[in-house]
Sequence to fold (122 residues):
Amino acid sequence: MNRFILFFIVAIFSGSPVFAQITSFNSPFGGDGVMSLRHEDAKIMRPIWEKMRDNNLVGVKEEWNNSKTGRSGSIEVLKNFTDEEGRKCKKMRYIFSRKGYEHTYTFMMDRCLISDGKWKFK
Fold:
């Protein structure tokens, strides 16, 4: 997976101020493209992740929509598993789209619970 994409999604869900910086330059996530997610989009997505984090259901899919930015998408738990280090993990699918654009973007990533009690992207 493209390291920039991973960095972007980590910034969204960590609440990092870096999010504002990575959406401001010419990239798949900045400008006016489908992937130009905004901080207010992340605010909608974060509680969905928190809800999914706390259950063990596979196939759970939650959609989100921000009428202010025209962006929408979904977050889905594909699999719960234990990684090679014995950590509890979830394979997640993130789908992003934007009103007026025909393309959507799909990313699959693993998040694992580490020893400090936080979930990190693997």
Summary: The chain has one domain: 3-121. The beta strands are 61-66, 71-82, 88-98, 105-113, 119-121.
